[in-house]
Amino acid sequence: xxxxxxxxxGMGNIRSVMNALSEIGTTSELVADPSAVSRFDRxxxxxxxxxxxAIARLRESGMKEALDQYVATGKPLLGICLGMQLxxxxxxxxxxxxxxxxxxxxxxxxxxxxxxxxxxxGWNALQFASGDPLFAGLEESGxxxxxxxxxxxCADKKDQVATTEHGIPFxxxxxxxxxxxxxxxxxxxxxxxxxxxxxxLKS
Amino acid sequence: MLxxxxxxxxxxxxxxxxxxxxxxxxxxxxxNPVHAVEAFNKWAVDELVVLNVTRSAxxxxxxxxxxxxxxxHCFVPLAVGGWITDEAYATTLLRSGAxxxxxxxxxxxxxxxxxxLAARHGRQCIIASMDVKLNEGKQTVxxxxxxxxxxxxxxxWAKRAVDNGAGEIFFNSxxxxxxxxxxxxxxxxxxxxxxxxxxxxxxGVFSWxxxxxxxxxGAEAVAAANIFHYSEQATRxxxxxxxxxxxxxxxEGRLLT
Lengths: 203, 257
What we know:
CATH class of chain A: Alpha Beta
CATH architecture of chain B: Alpha-Beta Barrel
Strand order of the largest sheet of chain B: 1-4-5-6-7-10-11-12
Mean pLDDT of chain A: 93
Number of strands of chain B: 12
Oligomer: heterodimer
Number of strands of chain A: 13
CATH topology of chain B: TIM Barrel
Number of helices of chain B: 9
CATH class of chain B: Alpha Beta
Distance between the termini of chain B: 27 Å
Structural class of chain A: alpha/beta
Low-confidence stretches of chain B: none
CATH architecture of chain A: 3-Layer(aba) Sandwich
């Protein structure tokens, strides 16, 4: 039985995440039933769409509680794109919303800067310090694929393990204990993305 | 800083990759599109566009299956289009692994569908494909695979498309398609200057320099189809040419091991 689950709460292109895991030799299961979450050793929380709608779905389905319990066991969880944002304390996307509050961070919109387009969409450089096993096998910079209008502003800058520049520098990856977040789409970021996913599975 | 993108386009007719010349599709290039995708994946392409040009709407289910098999081998963004006439089919394509939807005729006939898809999936998910064609000395936008003249001027069309929810424009010229003389640079440049969303240039590439011309005209991404099938490592060579010409393209981030 596979031990990697991808949370299916009706937000985003989850097929791509499954395909990417399959490419690196890992079978995964889509999990929509909250009671099944505890069976897994790795959880991926994907997501594309609006923050408020996503957090409401996690709450209403009982998935929030199941994920809270899972995270408390210390087993690894990776949030991708909106999934990363949901792990934060609050988001100001269309009003103020409470997140899962596992990472002390605010989700805020990119400021209006001349010549900087929002959404931030396309390939941009991931800057990180090597040494962390999460970046094993990678050079210190490479491009990954982003699509987002809001970014994560970590209260504790030590949590951000990779940054990207789009008018301003922002946290393109965070990590705190068993919690991992990637603002870009590793499943759509070719070899770099597959390597990062593979490193997460080894964490 | 965001990189300029190189996009490979697969034109599918009845599930097979075909050549496109002035919107006529006769020569089959690959019987199985997955073979082409596997090559592009290795060859540094930044994004894939897959278009269904089959004449009959009955091809929709077969196309969705092709999208599903392509997506299993595609680890870059995947945009798909052709015969998207209702919300259910759009959802099927997204569930099959597509990241973006390309709509063309709907921007003329069913803007409600476009509005609804943009609201539901976000503007970044919606690409307006526009085909311009010279008719009695005047460029106008054509829909229905280039067969129906809307009589609308390209700039006006592009602005309306953005108002209706397009997050990107996929620009093509029927006259330049397969004509090997490069993009329709004049119209392309005017559209790039007039709309706030990224423009993807397509139609007519026969040399790597044509790609550079597209970027110089203001396109955020340059696309080609036929030329990428003619040689080994084609997209990788195209990227190297762009980089050499000073265009900022994606770093593949060589693996250390």
